[in-house]
Amino acid sequence: MGQDQTKQQIEKGLQLYQSNQTEKALHVWLKVLEKSTDAAGRFRVLGCLITAHSEMGRYKDMLKFAVVQIDTARELEDPDYLTESYLNLARSNEKLCEFQKTISYCKTCLNMQGTTVSLQLNGQVSLSMGNAYLGLSIFQKALECFEKALRYAHNNDDKMLECRVCCSLGNFYTHLKESMKIALQHGDRPLQAQCLLCFADIHRSRADIQIAFPRYDSSMSIMTEIGNRLGQIQVLLGVAKCWVIQKELDKALESIEKAYELAEGLGNKLGLLKVHCLCEGIYRTKGQQRELRNHVVKFHECVEEMELYCGMCGESIGDKNHQLQALPCSHVFHIKCLQTNGTRGCPNCRRSSVKPGFV
């Protein structure tokens, strides 16, 4: 079966599927998979089979076809195909509650940045990763992923993705309520504070500011009581973001100043980095150039101190989803930079880079 016939049969299967003749559609697609000599056509029909089996709840079959699709993508040697197939593999594992595998495959997708398809799929990758973190009850990371997915949905006017993210946030909220209930039953104050912070962040991400504020206040009260200063920094930065949304920039700066004092006292460079990043945005909006330059300089000083940059090309790590490699000496580089370096030693300290780890 050649390229044209493969395309015709795929379309025939889609028409059957859309008219609710699911089994007939599957039969047509499986015949295409068996007889087609067109690798790109086989890749597309595997995508149809993956989607159909996902919607039917046949997740083991979904995974089976996702594995075949990976092999087909490798045969095609196209990074766009490979990104899409890894996303399908992540989704399949998510449905089967293999959450660690889901996160691993999602990270692989994000490391394939720069291709057209990978940029389009980032929202879906973030959603799948958020669902996996939710399954593992790692609420803060789940919320961060959902927020990213929601931003992608809004920026690309993707209503379907927005709907799916909102459904996941509903599940997230339910999980949090259960966790809060358990925390209250057992008198677990740290967990109560963390749940309240997550509740507040959810409401902030949905622009429910008046609901977010009292949650932040309650979380702050417990964080202060138990002496969790890192938690207090998170709360204060969340409050500042609420004030930014309400365009109360001076009030935002008041919260940021408190967060800065705590972060400075703890030597918490990540907290300081977030402080300077927020201040940069605020002073840019206010048009105060001197303060803006001051925080830009301090932001880059934090990046320098934390070594959040590639030691070869000098680009910041984290601005783009490039694949990284950590050497035994703990220095981190872009893999592409190390590959062009042509040496086994670390470019920074010249220590041996035998058995490097991936991050």
UniProtKB/TrEMBL annotation:
<dbReference type="GO" id="GO:0005886">
    <property type="term" value="C:plasma membrane"/>
</dbReference>
<dbReference type="InterPro" id="IPR019568">
    <property type="entry name" value="Rapsyn_myristoylation/link_N"/>
</dbReference>
<dbReference type="GO" id="GO:0005737">
    <property type="term" value="C:cytoplasm"/>
</dbReference>
<dbReference type="InterPro" id="IPR011990">
    <property type="entry name" value="TPR-like_helical_dom_sf"/>
</dbReference>
<dbReference type="GO" id="GO:0007271">
    <property type="term" value="P:synaptic transmission, cholinergic"/>
</dbReference>
<keyword id="KW-0677">Repeat</keyword>
<feature type="repeat" description="TPR">
    <location>
        <begin position="123"/>
        <end position="156"/>
    </location>
</feature>
<keyword id="KW-0479">Metal-binding</keyword>
<keyword id="KW-0863">Zinc-finger</keyword>
<dbReference type="InterPro" id="IPR001237">
    <property type="entry name" value="Postsynaptic"/>
</dbReference>
<dbReference type="GO" id="GO:1900075">
    <property type="term" value="P:positive regulation of neuromuscular synaptic transmission"/>
</dbReference>
<dbReference type="InterPro" id="IPR052480">
    <property type="entry name" value="RAPsyn"/>
</dbReference>
<keyword id="KW-0802">TPR repeat</keyword>
<dbReference type="GO" id="GO:0031594">
    <property type="term" value="C:neuromuscular junction"/>
</dbReference>
<protein>
    <submittedName>
        <fullName>Proteasome 26S subunit, ATPase 3</fullName>
    </submittedName>
</protein>
<comment type="similarity">
    <text>Belongs to the RAPsyn family.</text>
</comment>
<dbReference type="GO" id="GO:0033130">
    <property type="term" value="F:acetylcholine receptor binding"/>
</dbReference>
<keyword id="KW-0862">Zinc</keyword>
<dbReference type="Pfam" id="PF10579">
    <property type="entry name" value="Rapsyn_N"/>
</dbReference>
<dbReference type="GO" id="GO:0008270">
    <property type="term" value="F:zinc ion binding"/>
</dbReference>
<dbReference type="InterPro" id="IPR001841">
    <property type="entry name" value="Znf_RING"/>
</dbReference>
<dbReference type="InterPro" id="IPR013083">
    <property type="entry name" value="Znf_RING/FYVE/PHD"/>
</dbReference>
<dbReference type="InterPro" id="IPR019734">
    <property type="entry name" value="TPR_rpt"/>
</dbReference>
<feature type="domain" description="RING-type">
    <location>
        <begin position="310"/>
        <end position="350"/>
    </location>
</feature>
<dbReference type="InterPro" id="IPR018293">
    <property type="entry name" value="Postsynaptic_CS"/>
</dbReference>
<dbReference type="Pfam" id="PF13639">
    <property type="entry name" value="zf-RING_2"/>
</dbReference>
<dbReference type="GO" id="GO:0043495">
    <property type="term" value="F:protein-membrane adaptor activity"/>
</dbReference>
